[in-house]
Every structure is written in structure tokens, then in C-alpha cells.
Amino acid sequence: MLHLMLDGYGGSENRLDDLRTVNAVLNDLVSLMRLESVMPPFLLPYYYAKDGEDDGISAFVILRGGHITLHTFPRRGCVFADLLYDGYASEEKFIEILRTYFKFTDEKTLCTERRFYDLTIDDSRIWKGEGVGDFGPHIIAKIENAEVDLESVFDMLDELPRKINMLPISRPYVIKSNGKSPDYISGAVLIAQSHIAFHYCVAEKTLFCDAFSCSFYKSEQFARYLAERFEKVEHMTLIRGSKHEKKIIGRNARIKDMARWATNASPKGEKQ
Q: Where would I find the beta strands (DSSP E) of the chain?
């Protein structure tokens, strides 16, 4: 299972802030790279960041056994893109399409195979618990012999943001790859300019998990949550956005107002 990660810098503010452009990028990535999607693109503009420079667009499309995610920061001129796919995908084509649309002048990429613990990743890309100058951690995990279904994937994605002290900006989106006998059960939830995604390979009983965040959440909380639910969890936390200039350090009143729906959707007695 291939995972391509791209952090692009020096991009066009207008294009990064344009919903039509982001939608076209997702559609072209799917069609030109011949990827098998199982849903249309989902896009969500986010204009509630404490620092206006952190406003932007989050978007994703679920593939058979994977996803494409995009998080744009127009005022910073940067985009964070991921392609996770159970099949062949060209890293060069991925970069070319994104660069053509967003016009970034510099990028940082990482490519890894998710079915095993990749020992070839440069040690400088592995999170050490300190993030000076970094955008935030991206934790990837694999769980074998997992027993999950559509409902349990939804429930995990619904409660995880609160468990790791992150702000959800959408409800979970969970889908089967096909009909009554799906190859994969996949789900994603958008958190403030980031995402959490799960993909469960039914035949292999293997669950692949991602949590990427623009805030410096404690990635060990995510790993601990998975460890409490499953017997064995393999995980690695990666560094993203090493050229991103500022950290997000809080939430303001506008965020709280926007997030009132999350309180209404929470189990009784739980606080956001």
C-alpha cells in the first residue's frame, strides 16, 4: 500500500483559495493517475483559524483502499497533499499535477510502503517529540488481526478528535469500497485543516490509520487510543511541513461558535 506525501511551498494564493481549482485537482489526480475512487470529492473551506494565515480549504476523496487529501493555506502559499493507495501510483505524476495547478516553487516529498515498517525513511523525517519550525506530526499506524465494521469505524472517527484534543470540522464519512462484499471499509474526518483516516482491508483483517494535524497534538495519545482497542499496533510519527512558518497555538471565539454542532452530536455528558 503506497503512501505519497507532499508539502508544497511558494504556491499561488488565488489557486490555493479557489474551490473549483481544488475540486479539479482531485478529479484530475483520480483520472490522470487512473486511480479507483469510490466517492466524489468532498471539500470544506475553513475560515475560523485564530491566525487568518491558517485559513484555507480541506478536501478529500476516498479511493479503493486509500484516499487523497488536500489541505491548502493560501496566505502561506502552501499545500499539504497525501495519496494512500492499494495499487500502483506514480510519484512523479502526483507531483506534476499538483505543481501544475498550485504553481508551488518548492516541495518536500516522502514515499513509503504501508504494509511494513519502512526502515528506509530518513531518520530526520521521524518525529522525536520536538517540532521547532515544523507544521505538525503525521502518525501512521497498521493493525493486524483487527475486527472492525462500518459502525465501529464511524464511532472511532467520531470520538477520536476529542480523545486527542483536536477540533473536528466535519462529521465522519465512512464508506464501503463496493456493495455487500467490500474489499475495504474506509472513513475520514476533517479536523481543523487536517484529517484522520482509517482503511480496513477486509480480506487481510488489517486496519491502516492516519492522523495528520496542523497543531502539535500529542501523537502518543493517538497511539494509546489504538493500543487500548487492539492487541498490537505498529506505528510511526513523521515530520511534515518543515518550512511552515508559524504554529497554531489556540482557538478563538469564532471557532467555538462554529463548533457548537459538535457538542450537540456528542454523547451526553461529554465536553468538547
A: 2-9, 42-46, 56-63, 66-73, 78-85, 106-113, 136-143, 173-176, 184-191, 194-201, 206-212, 234-240
pLDDT at 47: 82
Hey, how many other C-beta atoms are within 10 angstroms of the C-beta on 22?
Answer: 25
Best mean pLDDT range from 93-102, 119-128, 184-193: 93-102
Question: What pLDDT was estimated at residue 187?
Answer: 97
At residue 4, φ and ψ (nearest 5 deg) are -105, 130
Residue 43 φ/ψ, nearest 5 degrees: -125, 140
DSSP-based helix, strand, coil % in the chain, nearest 5: 30, 35, 40
The whole-number pLDDT of residue 76 equals: 87
Query: Measured at the alpha carbon of residue 170, what is the angle toward residues 169 and 171, in degrees to the nearest 5?
Result: 140
Exposure of 252 by Cβ count < 10 A (0-12 exposed, 13-18 middle, 19+ buried)? Answer: exposed
- What's the pLDDT tens digit per position in 120-164? 666 666 656 554 445 567 889 999 999 999 999 999 999 998 888
Cβ contacts of 94 within 8 Å, gap of 6 or more: 4, 6, 29, 33, 81, 83
CA distance 161 to 33: 32
Q: What are phi and psi of 19, to 5 degrees?
A: -65, -35
Q: Residue 91: left (phi > 0), alpha (psi -120 to 50), or beta?
A: alpha
Question: Quick one: DSSP state of residue 39?
Answer: S
For residue 132, the model assigns a pLDDT of 47
